[in-house]
Amino acid sequence: MITKEANRRDIEAKLNTMGDYVKIDYLMRCLKQQLDFDSRRFCLVKLSELYEAKKMFLEAGKMLQGAAPINALDKGKINDFVKSAELFIKAGNFEFADIAFEKAMAYGTERDKWDVKQKKIDFYKNQADEYFVKDKRNSAMLAYEKFLSLNITESEKKTAQEKLLALYGRLGKIKEFTNLKRVM
């Protein structure tokens, strides 16, 4: 079914009359039409917000990653790619997150690239800690392994290794436990 609304203002007005799941369906139908860049970007960002609210982080990240190239400003593109990377990390898809971080860095100055790298470290650390606290052992293990592959400080590295050591022990990963113990 084709929607009648073809610009952002009309789409926004129609959205105010709907529930969340109907909004998702409606916005997906809008994206199948020919829309101007502003309307397309609005639909993608709104979909991302709706998916994030429903904890559908992978879909939210994909929508925001699709909206980023449409952004007129490089700073906006960087912010969109970084946010999509954060959503991919929350979804546990580190490969997509790394791609989004690389795209963000491609648009930035040296200062922007440094900021993106710091956010990358923070996002991985926070997600790993969240998994650890929630006792999601396998997810925490993967997140800490990814975190350790980044350029982090020695104190952060030591803390992450200790938590990873505990996770290996609780998961019964004897080989990894022994190897990490030897390195520490």
Descriptors for this entry?
184 residues; mainly alpha; Serine Threonine Protein Phosphatase 5, Tetratricopeptide repeat; 78% helix
Give an account of the 3D structure.
The chain starts with 7 loop residues before the first helix and ends with a helix. The chain has a domain at 57-183: Serine Threonine Protein Phosphatase 5, Tetratricopeptide repeat. It is 78% helix and 0% strand. It is elongated, with a radius of gyration of 20 Å. The chain has helices spanning 8-15, 20-31, 37-53, 57-67, 74-91, 94-106, 110-133, 137-148, 154-171, 174-183. The protein is an all-alpha fold and 184 residues long. It has ten helices and no strands.
Topology:
Elements: H1 8-15, H2 20-31, H3 37-53, H4 57-67, H5 74-91, H6 94-106, H7 110-133, H8 137-148, H9 154-171, H10 174-183
Helix pairs in contact: 2-3, 3-4, 4-5, 5-6, 5-7, 6-7, 7-8, 8-9, 9-10
Q: Please, how many helices?
A: 10
* N- to C-terminal distance: 60 Å
3D shape = elongated
Number of strands: 0
CATH uppermost class of the domain at 57-183: Mainly Alpha
* Beta-strand content: under 5%
Please give the radius of gyration in angstroms.
20 Å
Structural class determined from secondary elements: mainly alpha
CATH level-two architecture of the domain at 57-183: Alpha Horseshoe
Main sheet? Answer: none
Q: SSE order, as H and E?
A: HHHHHHHHHH
Outline of the structure:
It contains ten helices and no strands.
